[in-house]
């Protein structure tokens, strides 16, 4: 099956993540994810993969057995099944030539994908582009990744003469709501030495660093009183929370930061005069900087509690910077990716990712896992698009990573 046909077939399965089901602990959160998981399992079996398994959580795993005698590292590739809930996933993908300054997505609705609004589109003049009909997202995040991985496996199944080591693949659910599939993934039983997710954007992008991420829940307990006789009695928890927020460093919020600048994000505030709960996200690329931010919040909460009483804080880690796992003996993982990009004449564009992805969780679990491009742009949008050449390039990079890994010495110290 051609990679474009394969990708479009995946977009026809609605795998929108369901936030309500996810919040209730249901995984996969939507039935379409299991439908896609079962379809992929059948395709993997047809391609001759071994150890094909679909868990009740819709996590799909499979193995391409080695055809070489030497010991080589086991490489793995990951993609996620779900699509964002930001737009409809009733996708009607279409392939359009990009031969002017805009691509018509829907003539009836007057919806166009234009270079004026999206200047990066200009670099794909003359190429075929997979787009939506303007009424849904495309789902290239992350079905382009699934198609690229499956296309690479199909290549090696069709060319048994090409040497390769053992390759593992996994497709996980509900990345779009807190990386839930990766958090449930059993790295130890998977049996890979390192991995790559495919969850970046345009051709050439490569993520080998992202946030260290944490969360803080601050609870303010006040004292209610009737306002007619509240003097000296009422302790307003809403105002306590307001004062706490005002003591956060000015300018260190998402709306004021970029690049590698970290922040505190006042994400949610709920309560009344008696009790108020504040949720904060904490982000920093530096491990030391992240630790200092968490320590600052603890100290601030302790100081406020000493002044007012009724202040409690709960700090928790979400995921780590993947760069922490790519040092020392694991540096070769990035080197393999660099060589694979170079073999395909693709300039590597290292992107410090101001967010998280499945590989950050997997890396924290002991599986170094940087992030490759899919070729798509404008994720979570009706203007999401995927140049056909970029999709093919993503598959070619996966193939070359497999080839290059088979040439690596095995080192599992």
From TrEMBL:
Zn(2+) 1 binds at residues 80, 141, 199. One of its GO terms (molecular function) is zinc ion binding. Its cofactor is Zn(2+). The active site is at 82, 175 (proton acceptor). Pfam families: M20_dimer (PF07687), Peptidase_M20 (PF01546). The keyword Zinc applies. Zn(2+) 2 binds at residues 141, 176, 380. Keywords: Hydrolase, Metal-binding, Metalloprotease, Protease, Zinc. The keyword Metal-binding applies. InterPro entries: ArgE/DapE_CS, Bact_exopeptidase_dim_dom, Peptidase_M20, Peptidase_M20_dimer, Peptidase_M20B. Residues 212-305 form the Peptidase M20 dimerisation domain. Its EC number is 3.4.11.4. GO terms for biological process: peptide metabolic process; proteolysis. SUPFAM superfamilies: Bacterial exopeptidase dimerisation domain, Zn-dependent exopeptidases. Binds 2 Zn(2+) ions per subunit. PANTHER family: PEPTIDASE T. Belongs to the peptidase M20B family. NCBIfam families: peptidase-T (TIGR01882), PRK05469.1 (NF003976), PRK13381.1 (NF009920). This is Peptidase T.
